[in-house]
Amino acid sequence: MDGFHLCPVSRSYQTILLPVTYSLVFLLGLALNAALLWSVCCRTRTRTRSSSSIIYLTNLSVADLLYVFALPPLIISNAMRGVWPFGNVVCKAARFFFFLNLHCSMMFLTCVSVHRFLGVCFPIAAVRLRSKELAVFASGCVWVLVTVEIFPTLFFAHTGPINNVTVCFDMTNPAQFKLYFPYGMFLAIVGFLIPFVIVLVCYCSMMKVLLRKARDISHPRAARLRNKSLRTLLVVFLLFVLCFAPYHVARTVYLFVRVYMTEDCRLLNLVMIAFKAWDPVVSLNCCVNPLLYFWSSDRHRRRLRAWLGWRKTRVQPGPVCVLGLRSTNRSEDLRAAT
Length: 338
Description:
72% of the residues lie in helices and 2% in strands.
């Protein structure tokens, strides 16, 4: 949506790519995150619901829904070739919730990674460190820290005229890019690079421990639980590598070129299009995050398929939100909480 007075900007991709991808993210993100919250609140045992990993994933789902609800104005605006008819407040809210979701996603996924890492590498200490109280405290800290980290977005993001058309700037208006540049670098380092390094260290450490102890894991259930933890952390790692990392690289390059190489219009157009193309891709994390929960057990996967109507098979009885009734299938719930 950023426009340039001196450089002509190609917008041919904007009216097709962005509305279609944002609409897909809106539909899938709303359905999957609503299914996750429904499953946690109404179909999960109280003991399982209070497990650390479920607390992190539930908070992650709330952050996803906040962003999903901010998508309709972006869909309409991009379909109108960047024209923003919704006013300055909605513009600031849409940009704020985008970055809030992005950085909350990375932080809560980092919490999930540390949770799995402790269970595999330090199983004795994990009994104390993976408590419900600590998970609630860590989740509250994530919300506070990310909100403070993203708060300047409300100052930088606003509407403004570009070639006699009112637009909602992605980051800030062209006149403030030099002021925004240090803040953009801060977000890249604190919001992305540090969580990514933590996830990388957790994944490599888990791989090292599991490879070293592979021969000692003879009990089928212990091996299954450790393999599940490794698969979960692998998904988180791939999400950082394939989704978050390219976006932040493209964003950093775009900021650098926008501030220090504005005279090269061809390069400016190339890096801007590359950055814009990753906007909807990074938004797909709203759809991937709930899958970490539903992938945790066979029963969760059956619930998701039943909730979305993919299969008309009978779902195994689970806890209900009426009169405090609970299911007796305790072993599956305990496995999901690990």
